C-alpha cells in the first residue's frame, strides 16, 4: 500500500487525460466545430485546430506519464515520472483554464479548477 494516494491521483489523471485525448482524436471535426463557435469572438477563434492539437498532445503526454508514474512508483519507488505527470497535468489544465477565461465561459473555468486541485496536490506531495 505504498504511495496509494499518489497512485489514486495518477489513475484519476490517466483516465481524465487519456479519455479526453481519445475523444479529441475520435471526433476531431466535431470538437473543432464546437470550439470554433466557442471561441469565435476571441483571438483564438482562427487558431482552434492548432490550439486543440497542442492540448491533445499535452493530454496524451500527461496521461502516459501518469501510467508510467504508477509503474515507477510501484516497481522501484521512483517518484520522478509521477511528479512530471503532475506538472504536465497542471500545465495542461492551466491552458484549458486560460481558454475558458478568454471565451468568458466562467462555469467551464470553474469546472477545470476541480481537476486542477488533485493535480496540484500530487505535485505538492511528490516534491
From TrEMBL:
Protein name: DoxX family protein
Annotated organism of origin: Paenimyroides aestuarii
Residue stretches spanning the membrane: 50-74, 81-102, 108-126
Record bears the keyword Transmembrane: yes
Organism placement in taxonomy: Bacteria, Pseudomonadati, Bacteroidota, Flavobacteriia, Flavobacteriales
Keywords, comma-separated and alphabetical: Membrane, Transmembrane, Transmembrane helix
Amino acid at each position: 500500500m505504498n504511495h496509494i494516494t499518489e497512485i489514486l491521483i495518477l489513475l484519476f489523471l490517466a483516465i481524465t487525460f487519456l479519455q479526453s485525448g481519445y475523444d479529441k482524436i475520435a471526433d476531431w471535426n466535431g470538437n473543432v466545430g464546437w470550439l470554433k463557435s466557442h471561441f469565435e469572438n476571441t483571438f483564438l477563434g482562427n487558431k482552434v485546430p492548432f490550439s486543440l492539437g497542442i492540448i491533445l498532445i499535452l493530454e496524451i503526454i500527461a496521461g502516459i506519464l501518469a501510467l508510467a508514474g504508477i509503474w515507477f512508483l510501484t516497481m522501484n519507488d521512483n517518484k520522478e515520472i509521477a511528479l512530471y505527470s503532475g506538472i504536465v497535468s497542471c500545465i495542461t489544465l492551466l491552458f484549458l483554464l486560460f481558454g475558458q477565461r478568454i471565451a468568458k465561459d466562467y462555469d467551464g473555468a470553474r469546472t477545470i479548477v476541480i481537476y486542477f486541485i488533485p493535480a496540484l496536490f500530487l505535485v505538492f506531495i511528490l516534491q
